[in-house]
């Protein structure tokens, strides 16, 4: 049911006042696509909304209310099979350890982030989900941010008949990524089932000046673009590198001089992903010489914050993933959320 802007406690007083002045009367008005674009642009490029004259923090709050309103509305572009309750899942048969971490496979509306150091075959795992979606006759969108997945690689991996189902884009900068996310609905058709973003961390490496609120605002642009897409049934895979975090003897953040141990964490914090539909998976080698790797779910909608996620082990042999390494005495993974 639409709610009066004046009575919407999810918005601050200044946001309610600005919205009323701009002509918005109910929360249904916030579901308008034009409104969402204005707010995403203002949050993404870190200046006040042209129509509302609000700071980024206020625009972010309005965006949250916008997405809540949209989730209550059945989108007209949703496939009829989903409206009738039919559901499909994408398995990962070549890399069966992922099916152990995500029982039943990748579902519509689900997000999986796969993080790991170089050489852990993150993109290969993601492309196996792409292959699975293609076998269902579904369209996929592949975004390459670091030249890890090229058009030539895709031609070699997939049969000619699948070419019409793949939309491939190479994006070379952070502003280009923001523009793509703003226009994501125009890329998603009624048969589009999967979006893969390779090396989502990479554009942020070239903008070291983006720290604190500025970096957080850009990460939330990604979140606010993915959330409505997942609500409409789009499955999403992102891949990312990991970084080293130093901790002192009390487990607090430290530097290389005061730290006593290091842990591997995904380069981007989880704030860029909607928590209610995201599984964060890390792939961490236990030894650079043996090729033994452990995959662990760091966080998932069904996991409590202090609950350890499921694990599965595999082995890399000649740049290919091998069978599970259960029973080989692999030590525990060193990674934190």
- Which residue ranges are poorly predicted, with pLDDT under 50 across at least 5 consecutive positions? 33-51, 69-86, 321-337
Major sheet characteristics: 9 strands, mixed
Strand content: 15-25%
| Major β-sheet strand ordering | 3-2-4-5-1-9-10-11-12
Describe this structure in words.
This is DNA recombination and repair protein Rad51-like C-terminal domain-containing protein. Keywords: ATP-binding, DNA damage, DNA repair, Nucleotide-binding, Nucleus. InterPro entries: HR_Repair_Mediator, P-loop_NTPase. One of its GO terms (molecular function) is four-way junction DNA binding. It is found in: Nucleus. With 337 residues, the chain is α/β, with parallel strands linked by helices. It folds into 2 domains: 5-71; 87-321, 3-Layer(aba) Sandwich (Rossmann fold). The chain contains 11 helices and 12 strands. The chain has helices spanning 13-21, 33-44, 56-71, 80-83, 97-101, 122-135, 151-157, 174-182, 184-187, 202-205, 212-231, and strands at 111-115, 139-144, 166-170, 192-198, 235-240, 242-247, 253-254, 261-266, 278-285, 292-299, 311-317, 320-321. The strands form 2 sheets. A 9-stranded mixed sheet has the order 3-2-4-5-1-9-10-11-12, with helices on both faces. The protein has a 3-stranded antiparallel sheet with strand order 7-6-8, with no helix packed on it. A hairpin with a 6-residue loop joins strand 9 and strand 10 (292-299). The radius of gyration is 21 Å and the shape is globular. Residues 33-51, 69-86 and 321-337 have low confidence and may be disordered.
